[in-house]
User: Fold these one by one.
Assistant:
Number 1:
Amino acid sequence: MIEVPSPLRLRLDSRALIANWRWLAAQSGGAACGAAIKADGYSLGARSVMRHLAAAGCRDFFVATWAEAAALMPLPEGISLSVLHGVGASDMVAARTLPVRPVLNSVEQVARWREAGEGRPCDVMIDTGMNRLGLRVDEALGGALDGLCIETLLSHLASADEDSDQNAAQLAAFRAVREAVPARRYSLANSAGICLGRDFAFDLTRPGIALYGGTPRDEAAGQIRQVVYPETRVLQLRTVHKGEAVGYGATWTAPRDGRVAVANMGYADGYLRCHAGTGGGASWQGKALPLIGRVSMDLIAFDASAAGAIGEGDWLALDYDLPSAAARSGLSQYELLTGLGTRFARLWG
Ligand SMILES: *Cc1c(COP(=O)(O)O)cnc(C)c1O
């Protein structure tokens, strides 16, 4: 087979990933710090994220689905993996075969696991107020989990990225369940929850977004390093004259004679149309190239008038610091990562 290089790449900084995990682990106090690697490690590549974090000492990983778990086999030595979405009837073959724990989310799932789980340990999610996944608190306190071999009892915070009364309410509800339901470990905090303080850490924390360069709350500002650097190649440089329009709908018109760099990336790669007109763009050798016109499916255009000797085939670095790109575009930091498509080569450094 011939090697075909991709004109798009994600440069991925493993040292920044590990530094972010270490900071989150330190903020977690005495609790172990795990990692959410669902959605293919927020698009970075779950297998690579697991390998880097496992080498740094991370032991507890979480994916959403059994297909995601199966894709990570075989697991490195000593690694624990849990499937957040639990076990439906069609998941039982995978759940009995893979060395992975389900996170049981309902009394129906608990019954299924009691019947067919062969006494193996499981994790359990308690819903302390989000009303998404998990057993209700009254179900957990009412004996629904009696006799089950629970490795980790979890709950998930709905508003940890805000200063909301819901955080204290969920903490109190989780503490009440912890008093009543035995488990080897208890786990409540995601990235934002870690920033709420040690009370939220319990035995195990489960950060996702902050590992990958997201700033979940102000407490983490200046502490979290950028991990993902999307880059795209210049396909063509063209001259435009004052008054000429660029792209679909002719939404941008050249204010003076200049140069335009057309690059290999578009909304099919997760670089959505809402990036247009927000003041962001890319850079080349330290020079800013503002994004101009509409984002096409596979192409984007930048004003390269100030970028001197730039040429066809040069790599442009996108402005993709997550907090500022989110503020500009209106996308969440999560969407900015998980949308990044399969045409990017993923290069770890
Ligand atoms: C995704 C997820 C996490 C990680 O959340 P972040 O906000 O990315 O830190 C933790 N726990 C559960 C249950 C999740 O679904």
Number 2:
Amino acid sequence: MGFISVRLYLLLMSLVLVPSLVPSLAAQSRPYGGALPGYARYLLDATAMPAVEQYDYIVVGGGTAGCPLAATLSGPGGGRVLLLERGGAPSEFPALATAGGFVRTLAMADPAPESDAPAQAFTSEDGVPNVRARVLGGGTAINAGFYSRAHPGWFHGHGEDAEVTNWDMRLVNASYEWVERQMTFQPTVHGWQAAVRAALLEANVTPWNGFTVDHVAGTKVGATTFDASGRRHSAADLLGFARPGRLRVALRATVTRIITNPIDPAARRGRSPQPTVAAIGVVYQDRLLEQHRALLRPGGEVILSAGAIGSPQLLLLSGIGPASDLSYLGIPVAADVPDVGKHMFDNPRNGISVIPSVPIDHSLIQVVGIPSANGSESYLEAASYIVPLAPALSSSGPFIGSTTPLYITVATIMQKVPGPVSEGSLWLPSGNPLESPALRFNYLSRPEDLARCVLGVRRVAEVLESRALDGFRSSVGSTSRRGPVRRDFRIVGTALPVDWRTNDRALANFCLQTVATLWHYHGGCVAGKVVDRDFRVIGARSLRVVDASTFSETPGTNPQATILMMGRYMGLKMIEERHSRRPVRS
Ligand SMILES: Cc1cc2nc3c(=O)[nH]c(=O)nc-3n(C[C@H](O)[C@H](O)[C@H](O)COP(=O)(O)OP(=O)(O)OC[C@H]3O[C@@H](n4cnc5c(N)ncnc54)[C@H](O)[C@@H]3O)c2cc1C
Ligand SMILES: *[C@@H]1O[C@H](CO)[C@@H](O)[C@H](O)[C@H]1NC(C)=O
Ligand SMILES: *[C@@H]1O[C@H](CO)[C@@H](O)[C@H](O)[C@H]1NC(C)=O
């Protein structure tokens, strides 16, 4: 097998390229055709917000769940809603508008909390580079766009929280449908994606299920948030369904704390354990470091939709978490909730990337292979990226003297471990709200996960062996005295062990050595431990968490569909509750 440098491999596999590698790409981009999105009228920079204001609902985090939630809460039967997002609007960052900008967005990722980049880079204590969204629309504004509903079994709960879920499946489906009508499309499959489709079928990932948003065993084409002209649709678009006059979206508004009041023991009632504190509002900071407060009207609620890193971080900063850790940091304890920040999960990604012998199109995930829909096996997907190679690598290579950047196409087939069961935690390095939390996922630390990774990588190898991919093999292949010459792939980085068909131990080592992230991290505020079946924070009143931090398992497939659905679903549920408490005003 042919190799290219370890340096290039690291560059490609992490997909976090050095910004200086891509200067000429930035110049090629154009914003959304100049037109402002329909929701632009709701947006305000936080510096223009008053020092204190009152709302019925304060949604923290304008991401995948936060946008549909805020739009719905402001709609018929809802109330006055404030949505607070630490990042800017997607229209400010042209690379977000198209699938072709995916790699460029990751290349611009910046770890600094004060940076304006729409993707924030971080590295977990495991040493695996990762990113989190920092822009209105959240993950949906920077991700690969693949859209697929959860397996129905996911809604019945999993593991220890099997008893704590309470999904109304009719409303779940209606909420998925609402999202799908607004922002999903059927992709046209060609090039690398079509070849991988055939290869998956040849490797017995069957049956062929055609185009479907359902998570079913076999090979399928899922929906995408990129439309026929290649333009991205994100959760921010859903803000267009807000009721004018009832939604305010503050950008570059970083929430630093939830304001809570102790509840008088004599006035405690209801849920068990009884809440000891009530959320009454939040404090947020604008880009000029001015502090603002948003306070709840009577009967109002604060909802955290800041994602699997942001939501547990904010609970901890607000004194809701493990009492001893909080005291150690000097944060006054509002409610002792030991599991905040615990049970953090990330799906390990292991893949094989090749440089195909023929030029291929850039493609994000469209075709996936699901060997078993219940998550007992791995989950396979493919992408192809066109990435700049020069000038950083040209000094030692054959590219000396070239002034224009060189591009190479890298095609990849990857697998993730669904679930997973290996878990880690998130913690605050200090009481400073602007310091990023630390976290560790403990990838593949449980033998069940490692065993599924071994199966998954073997599947990937089988797919790569298939005749359907012969046209992409390179002429630099191995020569054999025994049989016909078998053209090989030029592999990027770590090669598979030669005895991959039989050697589980060697494949397990490959899994551990090449582990990366598919960015599906979740947990930190899991249902049954930090929030109850209605996503209310245990121990607190008027405070919920609605996002991927409540999941103790990924929905089998890629998570965005289910997180978007959850925002719409919880908005409708909360309006229903509001009506059961008081007369409708609309
Ligand atoms: C590179 C990449 C590719 C991916 N590809 C896919 C894919 O193809 N398909 C798929 O289904 N999933 C994909 N995912 C995963 C998916 O996008 C995420 O799981 C999902 O978007 C997470 O949703 P969330 O609501 O939990 O958090 P987010 O969408 O991240 O929303 C959280 C929001 O809260 C804001 N925030 C955080 N803290 C604060 C604070 N203190 N104050 C104010 N605002 C705050 C953040 O800026 C962010 O906008 C991908 C993710 C990444 C990063
Ligand atoms: C919800 O939709 C799924 C398909 O995605 C279907 O199988 C299921 O029967 C539906 N459930 C209800 C209650 O409508
Ligand atoms: C999951 O599905 C596979 C087949 O796809 C089956 O062999 C296995 O028993 C199932 N496991 C569970 C826990 O249902």
Number 3:
Amino acid sequence: MPLPFPTNPSLLTLPVYQPGRPIQEVARELGLSPDGILKMASNENTLGPSPLAVKAMRKALGATHLYPDGNAFYLKAKLAAKLGLTPGHLIFGNGSNEILELIGHTLLWEKDAEVVASQYCFAVYPIVAALFGVRLVLVPAKNYAHDLDAMLAAITPETRVVFVANPNNPTGTAASAEAISRFVAAVPERVLIALDEAYIEFLDDAQDLLPELLEGRRPNLILMRTFSKIYGLAGLRVGYGMGHPDFIAELEKTRQPFNVNALAQAAALAALDDHRHVERTRRLTVSGRAFFKRAFRRLGLESIESHANFVLVRVGDGQRVFQELQKLGIIIRPMASYQLPEFVRISIGRAAENKRCLDALQKILGR
Ligand SMILES: *Cc1c(COP(=O)(O)O)cnc(C)c1O
């Protein structure tokens, strides 16, 4: 129905974000029991939340009649100490996705502003660009990865933000620490480098840009990380940005006063201490990546070398494979919305889950 008021014209072409399908939804649709359904679609932690986080949330439940600490004092203090930063370098968001939006509020207010991202970039970057009505310049990928030199060359006087995810989702590709450092140094200071480190904990050769932030050398750099992936707290929605305190102070003005809820803060605080859970997750991911890599090679399937907790594999008709796997109770992610219709993305699970998924895939592909 035509609405009786004018809506934001960007919404006409704004793609609706296609999340991984929830287990309950698939169970309802297929008449299956949710217990038998395996979700490998959203790069969640198959080990579940940190047990320490669960305990902390139980304790915090009795105080949920109170608003949370809008400034996340304890969480900021603890994380700052862990990272060697100050609390003023940190901003918390309702997931790190919210930080992406706050960047839009802060920097994408001019009509002719532009943002630069890579061809196979995280779906939220184009959404942010569209939401703020600015031009998105997508730079062709090189071997499915960010072409950092071409991205540099795509920067114009109108560019306000360049988005880089390292490792990248959905390709799992990563630039070397050295390449990232060179890129960061080469971007003009008037352009914000939004470096999305959602999967940094899974990367062996990780760039460490925190010293530059601490020394105040890069006022145009923000790093973003999340509790959704290695910490296993995706359902709570908590992530953070790290940047120059003057820029963080501007971002802070644009967020909702209580954007990170009380349970999320309690859980994240406890999860920071759960080194065992983090290490188990990392080990599981590394062995799962190796398992899929070997298996895909054996089956003659092209896959992209992954530095994250998922794998991207070329299966022919990705949508069909997604649907057939779903019938077998396995939810993965088709990639047509990322212009990769021949690929599917599979989040790494436990050994038995990976095997179940691979066996099903082999059956569907007749290999
Ligand atoms: C999962 C993911 C995030 C994290 O999102 P949250 O909002 O923190 O759950 C951010 N960036 C990328 C590239 C991701 O894949």
Number 4:
Amino acid sequence: MEFKTLPHPSPTAADARDAALADPGFGTLFSDHMVVIDYVEGKGWHNATVGPRKALSLDPASSVLHYAQEIFEGMKAYRQEDGGLALFRPEENARRFNDSADRMAMPRIPEDVFIEAVRQLVAVDRDWFPSVDGGSLYLRPFMFASEAFLGVRPAKEYKFIVIASPAGNYFKSGVPAVKIWVAQDYVRAVKGGTGAAKTGGNYAASLVPQAEAIKKGCDQVVFLDAVERKWIEELGGMNLFFVMEDGTVITPPLTGTILPGITRNSLIQLLREEGLSVREELYSIDQWKADVESGKLLETMACGTAAVVTPVGTVASPDGEFTIGSGGPGQLTSKLRERLVGIQRGIVDDSHGWVMRL
Ligand SMILES: *Cc1c(COP(=O)(O)O)cnc(C)c1O
């Protein structure tokens, strides 16, 4: 697909941009450009442009605003040790994007077009990498139904867009352990639902329990399964791993209710290479507490693109709290985090071919 480049009439001045890049935070600063590709049923994907980032004009009847046909991805471009730029497993994001599209009755986009769109944006906004240590360019590809139509059926028109947001080190000093709240009255997903799709609605549904977690003095909420309210699923946007003292690591299985994280998949491979036995199996909230208390469980980690690998320190519920290990980052959590960040930044040998140089 040919991408047309539209010149930016007034790009951000270099000094203003560099000042912003010294402390970018997360999700509030955006680069100058965006990629837009249109889809119309019968015509397919067309009109790919790399142009100035600007507000969209939408018909108020656009079906995304009513029936929420929307999916997204979250990925990062990293500056390498040698100064070059790279993506981490972008073909996995492209594949998952299409899996999400299937579930939401949206058109698939060819994987090479998805990746090319991301590459084009990174190329045009290559001066938007944060100068801070641990910084990266967070990329947000997304697709939504743009057809103006109020009937309930899959839309016939869509837009695929990629925007970029410079991101600082998610954690400024060290990696603090998170305190998590066990969701009581809410679930995130049910079998047969949309839990495995990266769609905005899952996040909308997680906001009330997340706010409840904050009110309880926690950072994040952990969801249990919808049927028995017993099996641990995941956090609002991160997958979980439970590290046992006998060298086994448990992570909840992909049964359709949790998001198949690319970080999760990468960690499973790295753990197995460490000689640990990873078991994808159900693990209950009661077992978690019992294993922490008996000393059988050493560490719990949460993982996702934004925060990479994060220790879970304390778990709270109306029945009380329990603290994992010393409440800080465990040995394996720290080691894996360093290994993965090292691969992403070109410091550690990429024996898996996970890094795509740009
Ligand atoms: C995106 C996401 C994750 C993490 O996926 P990564 O590919 O590792 O970034 C985990 N859970 C949910 C609900 C997510 O949306």
